[in-house]
Amino acid sequence: MTEPFPRLSLDAPIVQRLLPRLTEIAEIAMADTVAAVPAYAHIPPEILAEEILPAVVQVCAGFVKSFIAEGSLDPAEVEAIVEYATRRAEEMIPFETLASALFSGTRRIWRIVAASARPEDTADLAAFGDQLIEYIELLSTAMTQTYVDVQETIFGPANEARRRLAAALLCGDDVGDLPSNAGIILHERYRVLALSTTARPSTTADAVETVLTRRRVRDAQRIAENYARVPVLTTFDGHSGVLLLPIEPDDETDLLVDGIAKLLNDNLFAGESEPAVIAALPKAAVEAAEVAALARQLGRPPGLYRIDDMLLEYQVTRPGTARDRISRKLDPVREQPHLLEALHSHIRHGLDRKSAADELHIHPNTFSYRLRRVAELTGIDPAEPAGSRLLAASLTISQAFPGH
Question: Of 316, 340, 375, which marks where a domain is finished?
């Protein structure tokens, strides 16, 4: 039986030469991995720099610490490995790619260390290689288990059934066995949260865009489930979609929307419905999406909106003869932007003409003249309460439906 190599300590010269170069070696190993593993070329540069490089540095540092801990992984190292493997699994990076990256980087590190060895380091180099293999075995075992667990959790039959269940509920279709297949007990009521980001999805099947989109989907679902404390049914595709929240309204939904927006690093408009029974979910989803879209069209800031936040605006923008006739009230001034600008400012500032004029950087008399021209051309006096309301409604329709 072959005798085991004696374990090295941090004092070994070959280890001491390694320590000052940990970050440099990690950067070289990562660059070699990206070049050697084609799938890694599709990972966005920001993920390489902000996630993968720090993980490689931590792995290198963990290996150095293993000289003290006799080859074991401490909890912090295990947590870092689990997080790294979880992210790659969520991005649907094939496991063979993950394994290739690990061993490609390890091979590069071994070659760097071997190249720095001196004749008197022969025994230490052999022991170093033995400990490196032992450490990589621990890493690969932890990564494999994590990857299998995440794949089953995210992409297993139950999760596919949940996506199909959400789509069926929002379409009003018969859900059949989908709830049991998804491991879900349907609630009596759900609040619909319709999400829409300002970023436009890519129109090409770009590998980098695919990775980022998968991450956006998982980040949104993760924070929603942390908020709801139960599995959340969703159709969110990374840019738009719906969350079904099986909880009663509270004051924290805006925190959920803010949290998702921060994770996505994107502006987010959200429309929230009142709690709806299963049969009413399709209608609630349409209403929630319309509220979010209307807030965006009217130039409101990103955030959470409910129909009570814009009752008048929502009603006057519904299709119908009245909407069309109200919209046409502004036809005589549509080609005169200075008059429309004055009318907008008048509506915002009410009777405070000085503030309205100051906003436009014009004299109050000039502002008053422009309002009189609006009255002359449209036949509606913005200085009268009834006229002001009618013109405000027409402006709202124009903002919601440009060119209407």
Answer: 316
N- to C-terminal Cα separation, the chain = 87
Indicate the residue among 300, 316, 332 that finishes a domain: 316
The answer on 264 and 208 residing in a single domain is: yes
149 plus 166 within the same structural domain: no
Please report whether residue 166 resides in a domain: yes
| Nearest in space to 332 (alpha carbons), one of 385, 380, 260 | 380
Residue 377 has a CB neighbour count (10 Å cut-off) of 14
Burial state string for 18-57 with b = 16 or more CB within 10 A and e = fewer than 16: beeebeebbebbbebbbeebebbeebbeebbeebbbebbb
Report H helices in 298-383: 311-316, 321-327, 337-349, 353-360, 364-378
Summarised one tens digit per residue, pLDDT across range 224-256 is 888 888 888 989 888 889 999 987 655 578 888
Contacts of 146 (CB under 8 A, 6+ apart): 81, 82, 85, 86, 89
Q: Are strands 303-306 and 240-245 parallel, antiparallel or unpaired?
A: unpaired
DSSP string of 233-299?
Answer: EE---SSEEEEEE-S---TTHHHHHHHHHHHHTS-EEEEEPPPEEGGGHHHHHHHHHHHHHHHHHTT
Asked whether the beta carbons of 236 and 220 are under 8 A apart, the reply is yes
Q: Is residue 271 a contact partner of residue 289, using CB atoms and an 8 Å limit?
A: yes
Check whether 289 has a pLDDT greater than 90: yes
Q: In this structure, what CATH number is given to the domain that contains residue 336?
A: 1.10.10.2840
pLDDT, tens digit, for every residue of 323-340?
788 888 888 888 888 888
* Same domain assignment for residues 197 and 185: yes
Domain count, the chain: 3
Do the Cβ atoms of 24 and 144 come closer than 8 Å? no
In angstroms, the CA 125 to CA 221 distance is 47
364-378 helix and 353-360 helix, angle to the nearest 10 degrees: 100
89-127 tens-digit pLDDT: 777 777 888 888 888 888 888 888 888 888 888 888 888
- Residue 211: exposure state from Cβ atoms within 10 A (0-12, 13-18, ≥19): buried
Which amino acid belongs to residue 223? I
Shared domain for 147 and 254, answered yes or no, is no
**CA separation for the pair 351, 383 (Å, rounded):** 8
Q: Which domain holds residue 121?
A: 13-155
**Radius of gyration of the chain measured on its C-alpha atoms:** 30
